[in-house]
């Protein structure tokens, strides 16, 4: 330890450091890595391949009898923790035909993003939300939720949760249900009926104040239409954010959700954002540069974006990417920054 | 003046009152009507008949050359003021085929509600908003606006403004345009493209903070779909509020807009609200009781609802009523109250 | 009526206008004065002299037996209405020694600003607020309030209310008390004990969300200290705003309160603000230009500032002016503007 | 690994798990400890003794030449990390007479709580804040700050930061100053002059919207007065929160600060709160039960309160405890809960 930087008394300092340790103290002046000019994440940029995820999820369906059949994406930089990035969970959940994942609730919040298939609905506090490819479905913190596959075919989707963050904050509460699936059918959800009919048209009466969105699902047809309408012909890009239709805030207090479209041959832009994110390719192919490394990606690929990593997307065929991040956390705490610039390559 | 209630010195009090008057003072104890147990409006409940409004608007189109051809609805209780209720303006604006109402802007905010026809668009700060039957269009305070009738047919619509309120508050600012109509066409509005594609799906980036809605029009097809989805089969009623899709607040800081649907034979409910409102029948027929008087109404009829007036609607045929009110003002000032109860008849 | 501007058919237009009138309609194109380039208030700038107010209040104390002994300041521009400006009430309330003004409550909000004396306390929902010279005391809308003069001397203070505004909005509710004065003494108010000890130090627990300030009184010693601390030596001016200590918002949803200090020989600044205000001189003397007219003022003088009137204050001796206005209303409705500039004289 | 719970195919599952690991995936159904009924923190309740902290800080002053002479309190449950609890830093900073800790800034926010002494001031973005015993001083995220000891005596204080949280979120930015101390003196701070004169009395003009408090210091005399005024005679307890005087929000977006007073023989109450906290005894003595263990504490002792730990304080002599926590983080993310009950002993 290069203590001579801090004292001329070599013996004294050794004794002093031993006394500090004995009293559960550490000398700040010897600590390094706490304050860095810019974020220096342990998590690494990483891509999980959709073809592996699909195949392994299918094997889990054949082999595993658990009713929470989820493959958790574990970032190699995080020392074995089952987390995609330090704050966010990403998992592939797999439900066989006619299966039910029974009810529970927990303080962490979740989103489900459907990559393919149909026939499943999720009950959120009793409200049935049908799930089809491209749909985003929310199960906010402390809401009861269960998944029903009413079809014969298995279905897989991406689970995104703030579990790592809530666990870090020592704020996890969990309550199992009574084990018996609800007797429900996949009617139209009350949430959609009230808040999903049209932009800015809501029931008369007081607008509810909740920590999460009043609308619990965002349908692919709607997202696709918005991406098409907002496409910038010059850059070949378009991007939407999913927000609570009665507050404009992020859909969940801990999770921001976005969908990005890049037309083939788009004009690339490099972005850096404080905070961690996970992306998944819904459709198309191209390359995503994460820091210095360029990855060829295709539908089903999931990737981790550690904080402040430069990201540049170039589409080969028209590319739709869903992304969730902890940006609302950074924003709420006054820590959010972002910047974008033309890539150098 | 029954001054003896307040003094035993009759002569002294006369001299005193004269001195008060000389110094521009008035004795509170002699003033009555300031503090009432409940609101006691001067405006009266009133109905203007659609058939008269149409016929007279048409005559104005033939006879009058002004480019702001508006018939102002004047509540008989308001001593000749051209106001439907103390805070709200209601007018029928009439634009002949190929006519333009040129640009200006003013601190009062306006809404346009189209009763029939098509072919007109309104430019709001350069953004072209097409207008068709059942549409609600906003021209918020201090935005430039002009109306273009691109068709051959005349068109009439209902203008709703907060002019009386803004005038009362001595806050009117007005600026005329340069007189030459903008060279614009009725493309899709930028406001709809960005905020009107789907509930809760908005452009990535900071959500704008504005005193008025980010969405400048609410289309009848959307409103109709929401009314249908939210219909309560037991009561035969449904009601939606129009809000800013990124804040959930009323569309304008001074005006709340709602659409109410009553099925034939609906179960009536009596409502009282603090603040003034104006209603207009878009479709159907029935009776509207305003206080003690019941009015048979049909499409095109406009009615004034003074503050705290009990309102009960009974549909004969399915009835759609658009309503705007000063409720955001009352709410912002902590003065809003409402109550509802089963009617006694 | 110069109708020829709008039609070539003189006879037709006369008949048309008659028909409009018969159907309670007015032609907008004939209406003038609705839309002006800048606010054009009916209320006039005006000064009520403190010496008259004092003398007449004292006479009311001798002559009048009412328990709401208030002289209402009536702006000469307002056609006999007992209002200082269109939205604001100003009155001199006078309470003889040992008198009580019994409890009532009303939806309008009130402030009391004490010009001199002591010995009175006001109960606000049971919380006793002592009143001394220079103190500002709030009785927010719908709070029960009564005034007790525990001393032998009469006391007079300035009442400021939003009664004209609430009356205009048809939102007045009033409820009398049971007539018997509360058995209370002028201890320290709970409101001060909790929210008035020190800036930013409040009870642990959820901060209450109320339309009005959690603190019901602002003491002269505090105001004086803040004015002294914030004095700009270059301009000889200082000005503070009274706000809710737990929200930073104006003390009442309809009323903004400020205190301004001008040192003798201050560098003057002309201000124009949208909305109406009332000022009162607490201390000192000088001149106040309201529009084109300069008024010499002294302690006790009350003045009306109609909307957008240029105001310029020049102190002869150090001058403290309390002011209340309807600025929160204008701000909440997106109608507030202000500007300031060096005066031209 | 008890895989037999999840499959009957022992060999297949081993191969499957190996394939998962190879592809950086983990089986959720084998993961335990993620979802617990209640928070289950790794950090342990712990007390650092003031006498050791003082003695070791003094030794650092004699021995160490660093200009950030800080002893970092390291919770024994956190595997060697220099953090008091997972989200919060606690350190004892020691500045010799005439010493300066030169300027830098960083995205983490800090508070300084002075246990004894005087003669130091901290410059926050150029505003000099004097520091005396019992004072709370803020250096919000990304503000430049430096400490000047103008006296001859050394001074030590408690540093509280959100460094662990900001580090976890990969949001640390740091910028050193140019190394030369500012030429400043300990005049009254501008922050106090504007926002610290009196509750609810602030400069006229727009109230600033900032992520942190407009007031950068809370003086002990003020805190003491508030604790005295709000003392509950029945329970012998009183507690205040420090908030932004113009928003009522916590002083920093990540840190809540409170001061608690317990009179000798107070009626104890047990509290549990989600989120982590650090306490320090300013004055007095007594016992603090953290979970199942009771600790006798005296002035200068610092203690760590992991999430959801039951805390019960019993004063022997009148006891003042300053506490900071990550409660604003939990609240902003919708994760905060608390409960309190009479202790069982």
Main attributes of the structure:
homotetramer; 345 residues; alpha+beta; Jelly Rolls; nine-stranded antiparallel β-sheet; six-stranded antiparallel β-sheet; 6 helices; 36% strand; globular; dioxygenase (chains A, B, C, D); EC 1.13.11.4 (chains A, B, C, D); oxidoreductase (chains A, B, C, D); gentisate 1,2-dioxygenase activity (chains A, B, C, D)
Count of alpha and pi helical runs of chain A: 6
| Radius of gyration computed on alpha carbons of chain A | 23 Å
How much beta of chain A, percentage-wise? 35-45%
Distance between the termini of chain A: 42 Å
Report the mean per-residue pLDDT of chain A as an integer: 95
The first-level CATH class of chain A is given as: Mainly Beta
Query: Can you tell me the number of structural domains of chain A?
Result: 1
CATH-level-2 architecture of chain A: Sandwich
Succession of helices and strands of chain A:
HEEHEEEEEEEEEHEHEEHEEEEEEEHE
What fraction, in percent, of the residue positions of chain A are helical? 10-25%
Write down the oligomeric state.
Answer: homotetramer
CATH topology of chain A: Jelly Rolls
Low-confidence stretches of chain A: none
Largest interchain contact: A-D, 84 and 85 residues
Q: What is the CATH superfamily label of chain A? A: Jelly Rolls
Structural class by secondary-structure content of chain A: alpha+beta
Number-wise, the strands of chain A total 22
Largest sheet of chain A: 9 strands, antiparallel
Shape designation of chain A: globular
